[in-house]
Amino acid sequence: MNDEKMDLHVSKILIVDDLRNNSIALAKVLQPLTNIQLVLACSGSEALSKLINDKFAVVLLDVNMPDMDGYEVAELISATEAHKHTPIVMLTAHDPSAADILKAYEAGAIDYLTKPIESTILLSKVKQFVKIDQLQSKTHYLKSEREVILEAAGQGVIKVDKKGDIQFSNSKACQILDTEPKKILGAAFNLWFQWQANEIRGQTLFQHLKDKVTKLGLYQHQVAQLINHKNENLQVELTCTSAMQHADSSMIILFQDITARLEMESRLVHLASYDTLTQLVNRTYFHDRLAQAIKRSKRYNTSIVLLLLDLDRFKLINDTLGHDIGDALLQKISIRLKSMLRETDIAARLGGDEFAILLEDCNSNIDAEEIAKKIGTLIAVPCIIEDKEISIETSIGISCCNNGAPDKATLLKWADIALYAAKAAGRNCYQIFVPSMSEQAKKQAYIQNQLRQILERKQLEVYYQGQYSIEEDRFIGFEALVRWPQIDNQPRISPAQFIPIAEQSRLIYDLGQAVLIQACTLLQEWQESIHTRHLTLAVNLSAKQLNAHDFLDRLEDILCRFKFPFSKLTFEITETAFLEHSECVTRTVNTLKSMGFLLALDDFGTGYSSLNYLQNLPFDIIKIDQCFIQRLGTCDKTWALVKAIITIADAFDMSIVAEGVESKKQLDSVIALGCDKIQGYYFSKPIAKEQIDSLISSTAPVCPLKLTVNRNTN
């Protein structure tokens, strides 16, 4: 109810007179008053009955009434608890004696008027009583409203005097303090509230709050602790104010239980700062701590070491054993990392299988190498997860900061460059950043940028190396080999350099697509001539291409532009593609086979060769890597190994292609072992598309000796 509504309060006036005409006359006199209601009673008994259910601003009571005179009625009204303060004005038609007036006051009247009553006087008196009633009503409402607000506020409210004693408390305060009002009122504030356990100061909490409120008028104290409470960990937030900024003023203190809120805030801070799987700090928090460590290094002239870790072939574990096993492995590795670090060191999970370690106050490279060796050894210890023994290794890149240099971004970049160098060195090792690595990184960035421009301008070149059949004595196919174009007399860049760089970015997808389009164009041209219709064309596919979710869609978009038998196109895939992306790659390879393409397992024997690939995947061709071919005739073990590969291929009804045949001796060796298809410089270097017709139409014998291949040669 607002002030306007409170002004509408109706004050009731009770007129008691046995003569109705007198009551009507009095009512007419009071007619000018607003917000009043007149209630008439013809006897004392009726008047008392009216008082049972109503409160009146004033009672105008006639003295002389037949059944019960006015003195008796006044005495009965004043004797009741509910109406003992109701104003009573007695009216009489007789000249009262002093004894009569005294009797009226003793009965409870506050005034005595003689009839005929001067209307102005009566109106003025009654008007004052009505005004008092209106003010009392407003005061009562405000008090009730305050009490409702205090009870509904949801916070404990107490009033504390200048000495620190509690003078008032609402029911919520009693609820939070878990006690009764009588135990709170009069008790000292410091008996119920105190500093936090880790925040003991020279003055009491009350004195601290009082000083702050005296200076500021309003003060919020974030966390205080309750005492004399069954929940020892209960914490509250205090908001203190005072009507006057004076040392002697009382304080109103609002407080609320914030235990749950603080616990939630703590959980949110933990979630914002820590990785949920491993409970190591996360990337964001680690970067903050790294920045702070560099500042300390500059201030105190100390050294810090940053190590970036990447688990080798972790994706293979996820793909073959499932993500649950992978997650459990990450948790075990995280525990191992934490177990070997000092309390001041920080281990973080940056995402996936990437970790970081920050070492402060250390002896730069010496400590870095020692900890890197320990990490490598510790991680290499097999883990037992769900009764499976799982082994994993790690590559580590290390960078150092001395006296605050370099800055955070550079330090991270150096560690990342060193990590890449560790991977390039064969993985399962560590590398400490040296400036030459930065030059190498710049060179790689230059190559990547140039390659992007070459692809955008469609300048990429494709060369073709022939595959010769000994039995047919002719070229039966070619392998498409990507080459760096000649640009402005600049030296060409080797595929061994730019292809790995392309595989580190999305450029490998565009590069692979460019090669495939040129290959399909050539295959379609070959179908138009009887001299070339028999030729097949092989295209290499990287693990990244096969693992791309849209690879098959891209392939179909290309194929719909050309017409040639799919059996003329061979996709060559290395063993490492299955190591890193086995599940996804396997699905894609099976789809390619179902579409009618030929499949070749490239560089067989150089990776983690497994008969599972040959047994479970639909390969048509095995390509023996040139490193074996070049040792034939000089190493008995290599001879036996190549013979075993050929025997396996026979068992699985697969063709064999010997790569890297460069000499007559090597040719004789592979023929003697029973290999019928040859690829290498002995027959053809990689040549441009325009030279293919000349090569295959040459009338000169390509094979100096017409030999018969015996696949059963011992």
Low-confidence stretches: 1-6, 699-714
Summarize the main sheet.
8 strands, mixed, barrel
Shape: elongated
Task: Give the total of beta strands.
Answer: 26
Helix content: 40-55%
| Helical stretch tally | 26
How much strand content do the residues show? 15-25%
Distance between the termini: 110 Å
User: Average pLDDT across residues?
Assistant: 87
> How does the helix and strand content classify structurally?
alpha/beta
- If strands are numbered along the chain, what order do they take across the biggest sheet? 19-20-21-22-23-24-25-26
Radius of gyration: 50 Å
Task: Summarize the SSE layout with pairings.
Elements: H1 3-6, E1 11-16, H2 20-29, E2 36-41, H3 44-53, E3 58-62, H4 70-79, E4 88-92, H5 98-107, E5 111-114, H6 119-152, E6 156-160, E7 166-169, H7 171-177, H8 181-184, E8 193-194, H9 205-216, E9 218-226, E10 235-241, E11 251-257, H10 259-273, H11 283-300, E12 303-312, H12 314-321, H13 323-339, E13 346-351, E14 354-360, H14 364-380, E15 383-385, E16 388-390, E17 393-402, H15 408-424, E18 430-432, H16 435-456, E19 461-469, E20 474-483, H17 495-503, H18 507-526, E21 536-541, H19 543-547, H20 551-559, E22 569-574, H21 576-595, E23 598-604, H22 611-616, E24 621-624, H23 626-629, H24 636-651, E25 655-659, H25 664-673, E26 677-679, H26 692-696
Parallel strand pairs: 1-2, 1-3, 3-4, 4-5, 17-18, 20-21, 21-22, 22-23, 23-24, 24-25, 25-26
Antiparallel strand pairs: 6-7, 6-11, 8-9, 9-10, 10-11, 12-14, 12-17, 13-14, 15-16, 19-20, 19-26
Helix pairs in contact: 3-4, 4-5, 12-13, 12-21, 16-17, 16-18, 17-18, 18-20
